[in-house]
Amino acid sequence: MSTPLPSSGREAAQIIEQLKGFASGDPRFKEGRSWSLSYYLDEDLEQFQAQAYQAFAGANGLNPSAFKSLKRFENDIIAITAALLHGPAQTCGVMTSGGTESCLLAVKTYRDLAAATRRVKKPEMIIPSTAHVAWFKASEYFGVKIRLLPLNAELRADVTQLEALINSHTVMILGSAPEYPHGTIDPIEAMGEIAHRRGVPLHVDACVGGFILPFMEMNGRALPRWDYRVRGVTSISADLHKYGFATKGASTITYRSMDYLRHQMFVQQDWSGGVFASPALLGTRPGGAYAAAWATLQYFGEAGYRELAARTSEAVDQLCAGIGQIDGLKLLATPQGPLLAYGASDPQVNIYAVGDQMDAKGWNVNRLQNPDGLHAMVTAQHLAVVPTYLADLREAVAAVRADPELAQKGSAATYGMLSHVPLRGMVKRRVLDIFSAMYAPGGGELDLAAGAAHAPDEPGEAHAATPMLERLMMKYVRWKSRRQ
Ligand SMILES: *Cc1c(COP(=O)(O)O)cnc(C)c1O
Fold first, then answer.
1. Which of 393, 269, 385 lies closest to 329, judged by CA?
2. Which of 254, 244, 173, 238 is nearest to 206 (CA)?
3. Ligand 1 centroid vs 212 CA: distance in angstroms?
4. 24: phi then psi, degrees, rounded to nearest 5
């Protein structure tokens, strides 16, 4: 059921009440039930941030000389970020709307730098196969070809293969701290040596790690070096709206010097709307997000972030120990930050079916592929729910062992098919079909358990996706039976 534009305005309190009602089916992140997407602590922080956001909700950072307040926030945030990342005095950067914007910008910057200084016309970048999907998006958007750096047996970027991938078209190399799928830090020091020697820029994607790894290190956690202390690292992306606990819409990209950042900037001196210059991807830049991010950094301070990092490390350690004790499960890699991934160590346990059981117990856990797994983005808030999570996980594994049929049901069947069917082009087309159905007029939400996009309130309305997924499923079943 959609809500049309009313012919005349409605009463504010009633609108707010209705608005809040819509959240009833959302992930229960305020109770620590969600292991991705949201970073939440408590009501006090939320109220405080709402005030900061509201005070600048109408302010626009498009033109950095108009709203001096926003430029002030941006300057402070970039300086704080650069210091945390051990950047040299020349380190500079801009605020962006999120990690994806920061990653896209790095690719655009290095493509243009290589074009300007080396006349590179067919740009390529080297990224580990665990690079965040934003890098694949950047490749498509900006026409920069990907050379994939494979993983070694420990699911880490295999740096021994890096040098062979560098050629005259290479505009940048990427490492992650940590990579999203398994939570490991790429071998940045070794990558930096090669990047420096070959004169290729090295970007570190610390979108998820940037505002927690420095505090873990301050707490005495042993971590490899990955920031500007590593020679060869030329830029770093770090999201405030992840472990910085800022409200959504706040990330940073910093560069070792203006020699790089200049190539990110856009200037159109002849536009009839006036001489125009923009430092990042967006036009209008949301003042509220900058104010709230600035306020949040002041609210926690170093001690506050260290305390959050300590609770997070404790939760990660308890989860790793607990998962290690559940027969049939194993960690996919040794996590070096706040993220972890686990899969089945026993073919009798279908990990996607375990995921379905966890969903049914009220958790939101993400699925991984290559290899199959479940994911956890752990925050300080989760420390309190770790025992319940582990108890439920133990039960989930037992339920899946007791009923192997569960692997063929619900979303486990769909995930299994989507990640294992060898016809990847077909999977891509079908996913596109499903997305198109979701975004078509009257389109509903994606329900993988039902195998379709559907509009919950109006059965029969947006079911275009069902046959598409069914056809794919049938092809998959035929392919599987031919293999057996
Ligand atoms: C989250 C993330 C991104 C993308 O950030 P968004 O804010 O979701 O756009 C990029 N890289 C890594 C490693 C991430 O974890």
1. 393
2. 238
3. 14
4. -60, -30
Residue closest by Cα to atom 8 of ligand 1:
99
Question: What pTM was computed for the model?
Answer: 0.93
Residues with CB under 6 A from ligand 1: 98-100, 103, 132, 134, 176, 180, 205, 207-208, 239, 251
Q: How far apart are CA 160 and CA 394, in angstroms?
A: 39
Which structural domain, as residue segments, surrounds residue 104? Answer: 53-296
Per DSSP, the three-state class of 370 is: coil
pLDDT in tens, 317-355: 999 999 999 999 999 999 999 999 999 999 999 999 999
pLDDT tens column, 8-27: 999 999 999 999 999 998 99
**Can you point out the beta strands (E) in 398-476?**
445-447, 452-454
Under DSSP, the state recorded for 11 is P
| Ligand 1, pocket-test mutation among 38, 213, 235, 239, most atoms within 8 A of CB | 239
- Whichever domain contains 122, its CATH number is 3.40.640.10
Give nearest CA residue, ligand 1 atom 15: 208
Q: Is the pLDDT of residue 455 over 80?
A: no
Structure-token pair, residue 237: 């992306």
In a domain, 12, yes or no: no
Of the three residues 263, 296, 329, the one that is the final residue of a domain is: 296
DSSP conformation class of 254 = E
Q: What are phi and psi of 51, to 5 degrees?
A: -65, -45
